[in-house]
Write a structure and sequence with these properties.
The protein starts with 7 loop residues before the first helix and ends in a 5-residue tail after the last helix. It has helices at 8-20, 25-30, 40-52, 74-88, 94-103, 108-123; strands at residues 23-24, 56-62, 65-70. The relative contact order is 0.12. The protein folds into 2 domains: 8-70, Winged helix-like DNA-binding domain superfamily/Winged helix DNA-binding domain (Arc Repressor Mutant, subunit A); 74-123. A 3-stranded antiparallel β-sheet has the order 1-3-2. It contains 6 helices and 3 strands, in the order αβααββααα. A hairpin with a 2-residue loop joins strand 2 and strand 3.
Amino acid sequence: MAPARLTKLELRIMEDLWTHGPSAVREVQERFPEGSRPAYTTVQSMIYRLEAKQAVRRTKKIGNAHIFEAVVSRASAQRGLIDELLGLFGGRAQPVMAYFVESGQLTLDNVREAERRLEELKQEGKAS
């Protein structure tokens, strides 16, 4: 099953759960920076949406607090975002790579690592 599309706030909450592990809504909310901390009910609503999208699940209840954990992995969410980005370019990676080169965000070490990985995939029969 393909991961559901996640909003920026949902991704921020997922990042918190990936980093800190199973957490209550209050714990997630309190880990936002104080100046930009959303209301408790906003975080709660977002976590319930993530639950409906099957990105998180309730693992237990402590008192009145439900503990939630990430079901979708960070790698899976990243792949989904990258696939969505490439979809904007007709599936072509070249315009994205050109941007990274021109902006200085793609280093020679990155290129060497990509070449190494392509060679591994070729040896495994997964790349041409």
